[in-house]
């Protein structure tokens, strides 16, 4: 069984990480985020979809993809969205030394600096966190996790199962994770417009983080 929503005990144990956004009785904001891009055609599809629903989003970009697709990043920012760091090469924190992981993070930051991009924060690839990320990188930048993981990259999940789970879990303050990647696209192209439409019907407004 795929776990779309992190058990509540986890955010309580790791309070330095951002799992959702605060809400009040008047809040209707939700937060659509996209990992692993930018990817030609796929990120453009996402941008068109967001425009159609008058939605804003945050893109946690891999540094090497930013280098290879600078015009797409410019489009992301020009359309009022945000960009965050997702390491230079989609680094797995459980397989890298502290020094190598930190350098991978810094290399992505340097790409952003050269392009005059202000990063909203960091999301560790695979959602994998270690003590270095939690105790040290969290001092340098906000670290964004999620309330709802779509699982759009998972070929074993049907689009209808993802949409159904989204309808069950999305609420004000939720941070949603999608992927603007080749692997996720067969599900993303169905799931994204459906969940944007659901938010519209429920008067939930996708905003930048």
UniProtKB/TrEMBL annotation:
GO MF annotation: an example: hydrolase activity
InterPro entries (UniProt xref): Glyco_hydro/deAcase_b/a-brl, NODB_dom, Polysacc_deacetylase_ArnD
Top EC class of this enzyme: hydrolase
Official protein name in the record: Polysaccharide deacetylase family protein
EC id: 3.-.-.-
Hydrolase keyword on record: yes
Organism listed in the record: Aquirufa regiilacus
A Pfam family per the record: Polysacc_deac_1
Record key words, sorted: Hydrolase, Metal-binding
Domain NodB homology, first and last residues per copy: 28-209
Xref: Gene3D superfamilies: Glycoside hydrolase/deacetylase (3.20.20.370)
